[in-house]
Amino acid sequence: MRKIFGWATVSVRWFSKAFSVTRTAFRLLELLDMTILIVTYMTARMLAYFLATVQHLWWKFRRGAVPQVHTPSGEPQGIVFLTPGYTQQSIELVWMAERLRRRGMIVFHADISHNGNVHTQAEILERNRQILADIARLSRQSELPVVFLGMSMGGCHSAWLAKDLYVRHRIKAALVVTVQSPINGSRVATFGEYPCVQELIPGSRGVEETSQCFHYLEHIGVSLKFFSALYDEVVRRRDSRLRRRRGSPVYWSESLPQIGHWGAYQNPWAMSIIAGFISHFLDIPDKEALSAFDSGCFPQLEKQTYRDSVQSIRSAKGLDDTGMYVAVKGDVSESRS
To answer: Percent helix, strand and coil across the chain, each rounded to 5?
Structure first.
């Protein structure tokens, strides 16, 4: 019995020591992870702020103040509502807006305070109520599809704005796009200095309501698209997309060529992917391809062949049933509901 008791005592001491070493190792890893998070966050934020400042100065001296609405020179193909992320200013979104404008979009900037987007869900809805009314009136008159595009916390706000547009004005958005948005919350939300970040704490009521808002949009037929970065110190990939519920589709978060949480709208490659996705979703024809047909670069093919192929793709995807998409330019025309 003494031997058994001695072995048991030694085993307990060994396990206790092993547990203590393991706990210390995990604490060191957590400290290292937090250090990497802070360094990466500050570096990415400072770099994005520097690039945004350069853009601001260039825009100010070349074109003046940032317009509330960017209007294309040609025939409009759609309406895009841009919502900035936490503490972001509209000037940081101006190049994204210009890319969309050159693709034929009418781009609206969200109304935010001078401190940037530091608003709660209720505040962002109240501040942009008139803009949503203008978008609804424009969409009815021109029959243009509406797209909401939001960065970080602005992606969550985009869902609420799209829902409000439908509830108040009965205008269903064609697409909601989020870029590195904390759909399921962010692990650094507790460090935010403004009350709005309390809605982004994992497991909070704000996160649950945002998730329900996205599922509501899914239920009424709004398409959803989620983007994430290759590495994001603020929003993990699995938190940047909508979690699956029974009977709902599986959503994936597409990776952008972006490192860090900040700077996607200063990254030309990331902006090209986002703007290209929106254009292809709305079936805006490739102007370069059509101009090549017009110039006779492909004599063995006809222009109608290209348009017919686009039309067949639309039919295969079932886009004709929604009536919310832009028709291919040319002889082909579609009616919108």
So the answer is: 55, 15, 30
pLDDT digits (tens, 9 = 90+) for 216-256: 999 999 999 999 999 887 888 889 998 877 766 778 889 99
**Are the beta carbons of 40 and 260 closer than 8 angstroms?**
yes
Residue (of 151, 207, 155, 190) closest to 176 by Cα position: 155
Q: Are 264 and 256 in contact (CB under 8 A)?
A: yes
CB atoms within 10 A of CB 120: 16
What's the whole-model pTM score? 0.73
Task: Give me the domains of the chain, ranges plus CATH numbers.
Answer: 62-281 (3.40.50.1820), 286-337 (no CATH)
Contact between 185 and 335 (Cβ < 8 Å): no
Summarised one tens digit per residue, pLDDT across range 62-112 is: 777 778 899 998 889 999 999 999 888 888 888 899 999 999 999 999 999
On whether the CB atoms of residues 178 and 226 are closer than 8 A, the answer is yes
Using the Cα atoms of residue 58, residue 63, residue 66 and residue 72 in order, give the sign of their dihedral: negative
Alpha helices, H only, 151-286? 153-169, 205-220, 268-281
> Mind spelling out the 3-state secondary structure of 1-13?
CHHHHHHHHHHHH
- d(CA 270, CA 54) in angstroms, rounded, equals 18
Question: In 10 A of CB 325, how many CB atoms?
Answer: 21
- In this structure, are residues 71 and 142 in contact, taking their beta carbons and an 8 Å threshold? no
If one counts every other C-beta atom within 10 angstroms of the C-beta of residue 326, the result is 21
**Cα radius of gyration (the chain):** 24
CB within 8 A of 258, min separation 6: which ones?
A: 180, 229, 230, 264, 267, 269, 270
Burial profile 182-221: b = 16 or more Cβ within 10 angstroms, e = fewer: bbbbbbbbeebeeebbebbbeeeebbeebbebbeebbeee
